[in-house]
Amino acid sequence: MKNILSKSHIQLSQMFLRIPVSQKQVKQNQHQSLKRRFRIASEQLENNTLEISLAVINDLEQIAYTYPQYHWTIVDILTSFVRKNAPYMPQEEVTSHLSTKIRLDIQAALTVIARRDANKDPVNEQLDLSFTDIRGANLNGANLQQINLYQANLAGANLKEANLAGAILSAANLEGANLYLANLEGAILSAANLEKANLSEANLHRASLYLASLHGAILYNTILDKANLRETKFSE
Fold it and tell me: Cα torsion for 19, 37, 105, 84, to the nearest 10°?
């Protein structure tokens, strides 16, 4: 009887010792599966139809929601997609200034980026949409704090109530953009084009507007205290 109990005890011990290994294997398999999905998603975003691209973007958002550890990997995939597929064009190549409609898949990627859970962003990482042409994009209420939008073309974009605190917008084109109630506290807007932009009730506390152009901009109740207005061009 003693030998039987002892044998059973050994068998149970061995079984429990195998459980952590099994759980670890499951996690490894899950990680490998997700890596394959990321690779396939990146390929499909580049080489497939609009419908497939939209489906992939939706799938990536669901993965980010379900697996927070892959949140930034997915954000990086989507920002890279926008940079590659909506590159900045010199002004002479822009044939239609405000009326150009943004591609649906580019808008979809921007929407996912804008509504992501920013609390999951790594401390030392930064959204990068610099040198992009995203004219007319809808970024209403977007969380774009600390984003790099250097020399991005956002003409006619809807940035109503967007959080752009600390954003880099140097040399960005925001002509005709809607920045009503936007938070631009501490943003860098040096040499930015804000002509005819709606900045009503926007917060530009401590923002840098050095050499920025605000000809025709709407500045009703705009907060400009402690902003750098050196050589800022206002309407005459």
Answer: 120
Q: Rounded to an integer, what distance in angstroms lies between the CA atom of residue 42 and that of residue 175?
A: 32
Task: Give just the sign of the alpha carbon dihedral 184, 186, 192, 194.
Answer: positive
- Give phi and psi for 34, each to the nearest 5: -70, -35
Residue 161's nearest CA partner among 182, 145, 142 is 182
CA–CA distance from 153 to each of 22, 38, 100, 134 (Å)? 51, 28, 12, 6
Of all residues in the chain, what percent carry a pLDDT higher than 90?
72
Q: Provide the whole-model pTM.
A: 0.84
Residue 18 above 70 pLDDT? no
Nearest to residue 152, comparing CAs of 138, 139, 166, 170?
A: 170
Contact 213, 193 (CB under 8 A): yes
